[in-house]
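Write out structure tokens for DUF2383 domain-containing protein.
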Amino acid sequence: MRFHQIKEIYQHVKDINKQFETFCEQLLLETKDERLRMFTHYIIDKLHENNTYLDKLIHSESHKVTDSWVDEEIEHNVEKQFLSLEQRTIHSVDDLLTINIDIIETINNWLLLVADVSTNNTVKEHINDLIERHSQQSHKLVHTVHRMDDM
């Protein structure tokens, strides 16, 4: 479908987070490496925080924002990324970090397209805020890995 409301865009990002969370939970079942397990739990916590934030946006933002329509096909590159993830073996924290950052960048690039095609300035502002939040999370993940390396 080509046209979507902003709340559907938010829901799509939530679905991506849930899919990545499932991937991380499977990784927890397969790995014995304690550092990787700790980092995986950390990522799962961040995914929960992101989805809680998106739920808040969906339910507390003005209907003028969440019901706004944009002319953008829902991007499926992230789903293709998950298919390739299932074939990869994660051996280290760096492997998982790289995958997570790739997913965040893919989501942000798609959200930039959504903001560009939106005619509502408030919607653009909210989408840009979400992009900024993702970017900050990406920086925090890198920082967390560096702190883990110092241990």
